[in-house]
Design brief:
A hairpin with a 4-residue loop joins strand 6 and strand 7. The protein is α+β, with helices and mostly antiparallel strands. The radius of gyration is 27 Å and the shape is elongated. The chain has 2 helices and 10 strands. The chain is about 20% helix and about 40% strand. The termini are far apart.
Length: about 160
């Protein structure tokens, strides 16, 4: 009886034809879903970005036209070099500040410094493509990019 069982185990294969077919179909589905997600990802170039404080827009910069509109009560804007702007967000008497660096050449936005009472998470964030954002929870500050498809043409009439 023991010899028959050993023979039977030797004849049994680890994978049967049906198993291989099922595993192949599952692998094909996974690869297809990965390609759909990867290919359909938006790769719009950042054309502008907005800064919102407590869900109120306080600054907007457009890379294509090199124009900025901002609320002077919250934003101080200065040019560090030909291709770098420094935007300082602050509340009353320079309390609760964030220093934002805008690199025009690479269209990257970073938060260089902040006086958050937390771990300064916003200083570890960077905007380099659509979908990125910088969020400073203690200061209720959100910096988000705007792509070409999101800029609305003005209606004249």
């Amino acid at each position: 009886m023991g010899i028959d069982r050993i023979k039977q185990e030797k004849e049994n294969k680890f994978f049967k034809k049906g198993d291989i077919l099922v595993y192949s179909i599952i692998a094909l589905i996974i690869v297809t879903l990965f390609l759909i997600v990867f290919i359909s990802r938006k790769n719009d170039q950042i054309t502008a970005f907005v800064i919102k404080y407590d869900n109120i827009q306080v600054c907007e910069y457009n890379f294509d036209t090199d124009t900025i509109t901002y609320n002077q009560d919250y934003i101080k804007f200065e040019k560090e070099s030909q291709s770098v702007y420094i935007i300082t967000f602050s509340l009353k008497d320079d309390e609760d500040f964030n220093i934002i660096r805008v690199d025009l050449a690479t269209r990257n936005i970073t938060c260089e410094d902040s006086d958050c009472s937390h771990s300064k998470d916003c200083t570890h964030m960077r905007i380099s493509q659509m979908g990125d954002s910088i969020i400073c929870v203690p200061h209720k500050l959100i910096i988000s990019p705007v792509g070409e498809s999101e800029i609305l043409d003005p209606v004249i009439g």
